[in-house]
TrEMBL record:
Main location: cytoplasm
GO CC annotation, single: signal recognition particle
Organism: Halioxenophilus aromaticivorans
Enzyme class at the top of the EC tree: hydrolase
Coiled coil: 297-324
SMART domains assigned: AAA (SM00382), SRP54 (SM00962), SRP54_N (SM00963)
Record bears the keyword Calcium: no
Entry protein name: Signal recognition particle protein
């Protein structure tokens, strides 16, 4: 979602980060470019004006003059102002209430409300260890009730049945009563949406809100509708005491303006980002991490959290023990590593979260590294277990069988074997710890100098061919 804004902002700021002195002149020129980039990203005009004014006044203040590296200091000012626009820190859900804590979901039709209910239920069950009940008070779209029931089964949370001939208030009250008897910690109430804001919708949702007194009232916005999302949020905020926002479809190619504007316009924090169709695709919204990513400064914390949740720890520990004992790194280990990387969104997703690796992530994407990793996995899957454990067995006829079975050619297989040999050598150097040896080995794999942008920097040999 932020790719276009990231490209524009980093190129706008590149001209000033190398400067030894910051002057009124080069600040004006850079801010003009920053302003254009923000407006192109569909950020609300009042928000852009305030942002530019804040950056200008801070940059021209005394702290910039005393900085050792004024160019980098200016970048830091832009980053901290971006964080301020989006909210100073992640605001988690406030569930400190006598159980069951009630969460009311509001929003327009098609924003991804029902899916977000299931995603949030899964998040609370797995991360917060809560017993969750979901209920649909959307009586105008019978499919919504069936959809929520299916999703509740998928994420393994409680579902309270409702029918189209019931009143929304009665449904919500019935679910809360049931939750009290069955000792549920949280009840999430899905409400009806419309294609536009109308009085009937507002009256109904106000009635439900008054009847159940939720601890959290979350507004679900579709990032794809851009600036209109902010206006809709404002209309809902005037009618309901919203406590936060869930921004869905943030994995799409929307321009990112809604994320930068919604906090400033409504005064309500974005609490979660919907990052895809799957029920696990919900991330807490961290303004400081998003700002860092927008400016191409990476997001190591999110990468660590993702690794914590998605990496198979048993397989990782097995490999570590193997390396420490100096045992052979075979093709089955390589396949495990490729699968772990795919679980974390692939090579480009990981690289873009590392500081200064934005260009490398783009290179990886252009070289279609993800496709090559899948090809490598297909090759390994076409081998017998003994061939995976001992690649030296591979003679001409075996190689032909493997390439025919995986729909590849001999060159692809030879490239895989060469890369595996390099990795096996690197793993051997890591026996008994040896982090510096590992880094030297990694440098060799990166093509000589090893550092992106440095001599010989680039993708591992064979990637992108």
């Amino acid at each position: 979602m932020f790719d276009n804004l990231q490209d524009r902002l980093t190129s706008s700021l590149r001209s000033i980060t190398g400067k030894s002195r910051i002057t009124d002149d080069n600040i004006q020129k850079t801010l003009r470019e920053v302003r254009k980039a923000l407006l192109e990203a569909d950020v609300a005009l009042p928000v852009v004006k305030e942002f530019i004014a804040q950056v200008r006044s801070t940059a021209l203040g005394s702290q910039i003059a005393k900085a050792l590296n004024p160019g980098q200091q200016f970048l830091k000012i832009v980053e901290s102002e971006l964080v301020k626009i989006m909210g100073d820190a992640n605001e988690s859900l406030n569930l400190n209430a006598q159980p069951p804590a009630v969460i009311l979901m509001a929003g327009l039709q098609g924003a991804g409300k029902t899916t977000s209910v299931a995603k949030l239920a899964r998040f609370l069950k797995e991360r917060e260890k809560k017993k969750v009940l979901v209920v649909s008070a959307d009586i105008y779209r019978p499919a919504a009730i069936a959809q929520l029931e299916t999703l509740a089964g998928e994420v393994d949370v409680g579902f309270f049945p409702s029918t189209a001939d019931q009143k929304p208030v009665a449904i919500a009250k019935g679910a809360i009563e049931h939750a009290k008897k069955q000792f549920f910690d949280v009840v999430i109430v899905d409400t009806a949406g419309r294609l536009h804001v109308d009085q009937e919708l507002m009256t109904e949702i106000q009635d439900v809100h008054a009847a159940i007194k939720p601890v959290e009232t979350l507004f679900v916005i579709d990032a794809m509708i851009g600036q209109d999302a902010v206006n809709t949020a404002k209309a809902f905020n005037d009618a309901l005491p919203l406590t936060g926002v869930i921004l869905t479809k943030a994995d799409g190619d929307a321009r990112g303006g809604a994320a930068l504007s919604v906090r400033q316009v409504t005064g309500k924090p974005i609490k979660f980002l919907g990052m895809g169709e799957k029920v696990d695709a919900l991330e807490p919204f961290h303004p400081e991490r998003i700002a860092s990513r927008i400016l191409g400064m990476g997001d190591v914390m999110s990468l660590i959290e993702e690794a914590e949740q998605k990496v198979d720890k048993a397989k990782a520990e097995k490999l570590v023990k193997k390396v420490q004992k100096g045992q052979k790194f075979d093709l089955e280990d390589l396949r495990d590593q490729l699968q772990q990387m795919a679980n974390m969104g692939g090579m480009s997703s990981m690289l873009e979260k590392l500081p200064g690796m934005g260009n490398m992530a783009q290179m990886a994407e252009q070289a279609n590294v993800g496709k090559q990793f899948k090809q490598m996995e297909a090759l390994i899957n076409s081998m017998t277990p003994s061939e995976r454990r001992n690649p030296d067995l591979l003679n001409g006829s075996r190689k032909r069988r493997i390439t025919m079975g995986s729909g590849t050619d001999i060159q692809d297989l030879n490239r895989l074997l060469k890369q595996h040999k390099q990795m096996a050598k690197m793993m051997k150097k890591m026996k008994g710890g040896g982090m510096s040896k590992m880094m030297r080995g990694l440098g060799g794999m990166m093509g000589g100098g090893g550092m992106p942008g440095g001599p010989g920097g680039g993708l591992p040999p064979g990637m992108g061919r």
